[in-house]
Structures
1.
Amino acid sequence: MPIYSYKAIGGGCAHCRDGFDAMQSMSARPLAKCPQCGGKVKKIPARCHGHKNILSNSNLRDHGFTKLVNKGGGTFEKTT
Ligand SMILES: [Zn+2]
């Protein structure tokens, strides 16, 4: 089954605020609400699930995520 990505339109909860993936059949209707908080969500255009590393820094940046690497001693370095 394909995986669809959704993201909260409003504030959202911890589950949907930064987006989440949902596995749905092709015929299923897209989600309109977050399954956790019931807040409105929108479908994000399908991303490539091929051999591309979805957790690569460039891909995270493309999707608006920030990756922080723990450098120890309570300091974090932003890598995206
Ligand atoms: Zn939510």
2.
Amino acid sequence: MSAQRPTALVTGASQGIGAAIAIQLAQLGYDVAVSSTRPEKLADVISQVTQAGGRAAPIALDISSHSDIVRAMKEVVAALGHVDVLVNNAGIPLKKPAVDITPEEWDRVIGTNLTGTFFMSQEMGRHLIAARRPGCIINIASTHGLVGLPERAAYSIAKGAMIHMARVLAVEWAAHGIRFNAIVPGRVDTASRAGSLAEPGYRDMALNRVPLKRFATADEIAAAVCYLASPQASYVTGQALVLDGGLTAQ
Ligand SMILES: NC(=O)c1ccc[n+]([C@@H]2O[C@H](COP(=O)([O-])OP(=O)(O)OC[C@H]3O[C@@H](n4cnc5c(N)ncnc54)[C@H](OP(=O)(O)O)[C@@H]3O)[C@@H](O)[C@H]2O)c1
């Protein structure tokens, strides 16, 4: 990390976990680029990053578009000067029986969660290597990437690959001082997931599987990001940090 203010790009930061990450990083002294497919949704997080004392750069980014990724990275560097930390948070769920998933749905889920994350990381790697700066990349994966549950095939396969991406690129980029880790949340109480939890019996069933008998908060996931981005985690790379209330310990 430089003597200048540290900087971060958080993808999908308009709401939920991404917004919490951007705000906590700002509270730690980061300037933060926040992205959304619809930048008008970023007003609230920008105001909270600014209130926390950080500079906020709004970025329009559809992670499923390679040209968007290349342009967005240039805009972030132009706005903040450099990027120390990339948090690959943008993602979409799909709950559907495997036998019913269409090629279009597969492409959308894999293209957003996996391909988008890879090429965003590639741009970050290129930026850091060209600038000869150390840096840190964090993928927000999911316990669906560790264990198999029904009706989540495309999402789970993408999240599992995001965990392995952290291992592979941690090794490939270690010589450049780039650390790459994954955070693996279990269920997190965010507004966007309220729909599935509203299905009769689903919340109790999901809670019953968690030894701590509650879901994570977005702030708990953000705190783990802040740790992995910090100098305290300087020897941590290629790892998956699981925050699941004990779900996968059983
Ligand atoms: N909530 C959970 O229980 C849970 C558990 C494990 C892992 N996760 C993972 O954590 C991350 C955040 O989850 P969340 O619950 O906070 O979800 P969320 O509220 O739906 O937020 C997802 C974010 O991703 C962005 N996004 C969606 N499609 C995008 C695209 N094509 N390009 C760029 N950005 C895009 C959205 O941005 P705009 O709509 O503003 O464009 C939004 O800000 C996701 O990767 C999710 O898979 C969530």
